[in-house]
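ugh ok so i messed up the first submission bc i forgot one of the chains. this is the corrected input, ALL of the components this time, i swear. 519 residues overall. if the numbers dont match what u have on ur side tell me asap before i send this to the collaborators (the ones from the other lab, u know who)
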Amino acid sequence: MTECAVADAKPLAPVPSHVPADRVVDFDIFNPPGIDDMGVHEAWIKLQQSTPYEVVWTPHNEGHWIAVRGKRVRAMYRDPAHFSSHIIWLPKSEGENYGLVPTRLDPPQHTPFREVLNKAIGITATKAMEPMVRSVAVRIIDALAPQGKCNFTDDYAKQFPVQVFLNLLDLPHEDAAEVKEWIDQMTRPDGSMSMEEVMANVFRYVDPIIEQRLKTPGTDLISIVINNDIDGRPMTRDEMRGLVSLLLVAGLDTVVNVLSFFMEFLARNPGHRRQLVENPALIRKGIEELFRRFPVVAEARMVKEDTECDGVEMKAGDMVCVPTLITGTDDRMNGCPMHVDFNRKGISHVTFGDGPHICAGQHFARLEAIVTLEEWLKRIPEFDIPAGEKISHKSGIVCTVERLPLVWTPRA
Amino acid sequence: MKIIVSVPGDGEVNIDARNGWTVMEAMRDAGLPIIAQCGGGRACATCHIHVDSAFFGKLTPMEEEEHELLESLDSFDTAKSRLSCQILCDDSLDGLTIALQPDSVGD
Ligand code: HEM
Ligand code: FES
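and heres the new structure output, hopefully the right one now
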């Protein structure tokens, strides 16, 4: 409610002279038309289907372009020379204040930092984490199963990735609520705090931890990340706090919401659910189809120099939204894109971004999703959304499922 | 490390790669026309390469899911085929010689 009020109160940007009139759409990425009736993915696809163009322009959120076709979004992610990561969050004036290393760097400055992230949470590191991740999932689900009901978003999705992360970072579990609060402020600001204040809070939390891990390094993720050189020189304190905060921001809210979208789908589609219950081996393979169908991220790029794109002139400094939300579900990327087929061949999606900044935690995210479905379906194979409950989505830099009540019959 | 890639229609290209990135990512960020349409999710097989016999045996063995995907491809070759998104760059692979397969080349 308040979020809409805040968004509506903001004036629309005037249409700049280089934007052709037929490219202008009335679309607020934080509150897309139709979201309440049809859900967030359908609302974004409606925008895609409403235009013959691959790139449109909206006066909302200070005015920006939006790429509305999956292949165009992928091409922009792969072209940092024209579409810079210098600012990646909309609106631009807020995005300027957000600066976690290395998300706002372009290659080649970005590259050595990414090496550190790959080491910390890449394919190899992820394999070693599976037992810990599984034990967290089992503990939470075992506690929920006898209750016969839960609010999945609060009782599982918000607990699981935070606890996993606090384990990885070797931080106390009591910190969970605080950490979650400022991550929410970052990805779906409710107007009560400016981005600068949010970042100040994050750093106030992170700084003493870094201090301590520099003095007594452990085997935790923070120690691994901060004890690295950047192309032969030591990391600065700013770079350390950036990387550590980034791991928290990037690895929590995304997973919380992806899991909620997956479970909403499985609750509504007993046929699909039973396929996974009867053949648990299908989960590992089928997970990619769910990632394709339920992307959650809508970020941006800044035009680096004047450039032509899809028949329009873009000016240096223009912002372009590159929503992953309309990629795997684009009918030019996948046939019958809104249909979920766990045996789909040749899956095409941009759910984790693409190009040099492609999600550093993608393998870890898959692991968290696979483990959740495996352990949940083993214990709670049949579940429903209670009759009469309306499930609402919110659109933002990370899209969310507001709440997801589920009921089931506990085993005797 | 260096990777020598033969690109269909484009001859041999030498690229620099950093440890810890995947071979697919190294090709993509060097601007080669690799499709890689699932971004490294082992779900699309559009990052298919043939690996020179001098290197094939040095790679980390593939998992079942990778094998299953490769088998369905026309240019599948048991002695050469890999998904480049599953191979991590590492100094022990310096000079890695590969051929990007036509089924994985986009525009
Ligand atoms: C389902 C869950 C996830 C989704 C949908 C997702 C999506 C994304 C996307 C779209 C980007 C690209 C941002 C850009 O190009 O500007 C990204 C970057 C990133 N993600 Fe994820 N992510 C997920 C989970 C995770 C997890 C679990 C971690 C950490 C363990 C993580 C760590 C990162 C990091 C560090 C980056 C920045 C990489 C860079 O700038 O080089 N993500 N993610
Ligand atoms: S990029 Fe899709 S399988 Fe390698």
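quick check: Residues A 85, 88, 102-103, 114, 117, 121, 246-247, 250-251, 254-255, 258, 296-297, 299, 324, 351-353, 357, 359-361, 364-365 surround protoporphyrin IX containing FE (ligand 1) (CB under 6 Å). that seems consistent at least. The interface with chain A takes residues 18-22, 25, 28-29, 37-46, 65, 72, 86, 88 of chain B (CB under 8 Å).
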